[in-house]
Amino acid sequence: MPPKARAKNRQTSQRALPRQVAPQATAEQVAALQRAAAAAAEQAAEEQRRAAEREAIVKIFHAADVSKDGFLYLEDLQVVLEKLGVQDADHVLKEMDVNRDGKVSVDEFVAWVFDDANCDAKAALQYEQCLRKMFGEVWDALRNDVDALTSQADAILEQGKQHFETAVLQLEIEKATFAEMRSLRRVPPNFAAVVEALIFLLEGTTQPQGWPACQQYLGKPHVVYEKIRDWENNVQSESLNASPAGVAAAQAMLREPSVNPDAVRSISNAGSRLCIWIQGMVEFYNVRQQVKMLQWAAATARANCQ
After folding, report:
1. How far apart are CA 280 and CA 171, in angstroms?
2. Which member of 155, 281, 286, 306 has the lowest number of beta carbons within 10 Å of its beta carbon?
3. At 71, is the pLDDT very low, low, confident or very high (cuts 50, 70, 90)?
């Protein structure tokens, strides 16, 4: 067969071969992958959070280690625990000292703090670390001043109430507006992010939902409205009954440069107001957390003075 004929025959054969089509993932497979990715991200965030907590606790240990030999003794513990409002240092030393050598290593200290039975002590250590970060060098002088701590708490709370009231006024959305937002077929990522941030806040979840799930959530506007009002009541209550993980997830979502009221307003005015409400509630939650820590510090200082 002549060369030209062979080349033509080869091209014809190649055209006759069926094209390989990449298999398309089903909706269930995509959803499963998204759930797996979200779970992995949540686990990584939890590990990172616990690592940061451990680092903060280790810093407290080393600050209390006067002798700098890597151990805490009874005198060292008394200084640390008195700042936290814990008086029975002898009993705590016995609990921490697992190997009964009369002193506490950094691993024993961290293990005791992370024990669920000692959650109050863990919270106190976290409060101590956060307040020191808030006030810097003046914290040592401020920590025993009950009046100053109370005044700081009142001032911060008053300022936070302004954010809260502004947010409440913004959310004058008719229930029909939720149906309007839900009816959108294709939405920009920043608009979907606002609805996801709302779900994080109200449901305490941290897993991305996707727009179809957001549409389904908005499909029961009366339920969403009730949860919004419940959130407003909870964030004002003394118990501060809200999910820290959900608040953190919503706050992280709103940090995206494109997720802001002005950018969302071009898509939906109601969505823009919803964004302002979420921002205000997150801000007020953070204020309430600061006030809670200052009130703890004032109570501890008051107990130490008696």
Report:
1. 11
2. 306
3. very high
**Cβ of 183: how many Cβ atoms within 10 Å?**
9
Each residue's pLDDT tens digit, 76-134: 888 877 766 666 778 788 888 888 898 999 888 888 877 755 566 667 777 777 787 78
Verdict on whether the full-model pTM lies above 0.70? no
For residue 271, give every residue at least 6 positions away whose Cβ sits within 8 Å of its Cβ, in sequence order, or none.
181, 191, 194, 195, 264, 265
DSSP 252-263: HHHTSTT-SHHH
Which pLDDT score is estimated for 21?
45
Q: Are 212 and 187 in contact (CB under 8 A)?
A: no
How does DSSP assign 118-160, residue by residue?
A: GHHHHHHHHHHHHHHHHHGGGHHHHTT-HHHHHHHHHHHHHHH
Asked if 303 and 187 count as a contact pair (C-beta separation under 8 A), the reply is no
User: Which residues have CB under 8 Å from 146's CB, separation 6+?
Assistant: 298, 301, 302, 305
Rounded alpha-carbon distances, angstroms, from residue 259 to 34, 62, 189, 198, 203: 21, 41, 9, 12, 20
What confidence tens digit (pLDDT) does each residue in 39-53 have? 666 666 667 777 777
Q: Nearest Cα to 104, choosing from 89, 115, 118, 122?
A: 89
| Residue 39 token pair | 């779970």
Of 40, 28, 302, give the one whose Cα is nearest residue 148.
Answer: 302
Name the burial class of residue 12, with classes exposed (0-12), middle (13-18) and buried (19+) by CB atoms within 10 angstroms of its CB. exposed
Read off the tokens for 239. 């118990």
Q: Which amino acid is at 272?
A: S
Q: Rounded to whole angstroms, what are the CA distances from 178 to 216, 244, 249, 275?
A: 11, 26, 22, 13
Tell how far CA 14 is from the center of its chain.
Answer: 57
Q: Exposed, middle or buried, 53 (CB in 10 Å: 0-12/13-18/19+)?
A: middle
Angle 91-126-230 (CA atoms, 0-180°, nearest 5)? 115
Six token digits for residue 251: 């706050």
